[in-house]
Amino acid sequence: MMALGHTTECGLPGVTTIPYGVHMCHFYETRAELAAALVPYFVTGLRKRERCLWVTAEPLDATAAAAELRRAGLNVEALARAGSLVIRDAASFFAGVTMGSEVVDLWLDEERRALEAGYTGLRVTGNTNFVSPADWSAFMDYEELMNQACPERRIVALCSYLRERCGATEIAEAVQRHNCTLDRPDQGWRILPGRV
Q1: Domains along the chain?
Q2: What is the average per-residue pLDDT within 100-124?
Q3: Residue 132 φ then ψ, to 5°
Q4: H-type alpha helices, the chain
Q5: pLDDT digits (tens, 9 = 90+) for 179-192
Q6: What tens digit of pLDDT does each residue of 141-169 get?
Q7: CA gap 85, 54 in Å, rounded
Q8: Is the pLDDT confidence value at 115 over 80?
Q9: What torsion do the CA atoms of 108, 110, 111, 115 make, to the nearest 10 degrees?
Q10: Which residues contact 18 (CB under 8 A, 6 or more apart)?
Q11: What residues contact residue 107 under an 8 Å CB cut-off, 6+ apart?
Q12: Distance (Å, rounded) from C-alpha 47 to C-alpha 45?
């Protein structure tokens, strides 16, 4: 069996190679900005033979996310039947699971199954818009656990945060719980360091 590389492609213009085991975040303002980040991220993951899991929340629910991928030329239904692509709203995906180590275990189990099925890795994203202000602290604890679990794994994770729901404190907390932040100041993307 051929050894797998330690890096993959991100898919966003300006950000080329990223390591497996990276736990990234980005902040968006509009539905269009969210789609502009996540569609090329998943198109690239599918091209790289990674199993892709998109956990959605407003303003881009599962139906709208699938439509965006179709507009990018993907046969969403065929990819879903093959198990290469899963798109689910957060409420149904996390039903019955306590946010924290149970969710981390869920991702690690998904990675194991992806590798056993012959995929090169697991590419995931979650739009955090489903997290209520009352659950923010517990969610930050989960993000910290995820940040600790990702290194040395065949996982690429990108967490999306709606900027209008995050004050300066929430932005700082989110950035500190990720390896890096993807930022799009103008036309291209760039990587900003996460925790210091």
Answers
A1: 18-193 (3.40.50.300)
A2: 93
A3: -80, 160
A4: 31-47, 62-71, 76-82, 90-93, 101-116, 136-149, 168-176
A5: 999 998 676 799 88
A6: 999 999 999 998 999 999 999 999 999 99
A7: 8
A8: yes
A9: 140
A10: 7, 8, 9, 10, 24, 156, 191
A11: 122, 124, 146, 149, 155, 157
A12: 5
Find residue 34's DSSP bridge partners: none
CA 189, CA 135: separation in Å to the nearest integer?
30
The residues with which 128 forms a beta bridge, in sequence order, are none
Total residue length of the chain = 196
Contacts for 66-70: CB closer than 8 Å, 24+ residues apart: 68/35, 68/38, 68/39, 69/39, 69/42, 69/43
Other Cβ atoms closer than 10 A to 40: 17
Answer for the pair 54, 38: CB distance below 8 angstroms, yes or no: yes
Q: Which of 5-14, 25-34, 75-84 has the lowest mean pLDDT?
A: 5-14
Question: Token pair of 7, please?
Answer: 């890096």
Model pLDDT, residue 2:
40
Provide DSSP, 70-91.
Answer: HHTT--HHHHHHHTSEEEEEHH
Whether pLDDT at 120 is above 90 = yes
DSSP 165: G
pTM of the full structure: 0.93
CB 152 within 8 A of CB 65: no
In the predicted structure, residue 128 carries a pLDDT above the cut 80: yes
Q: Which of the 8 DSSP states describes residue 22?
A: E
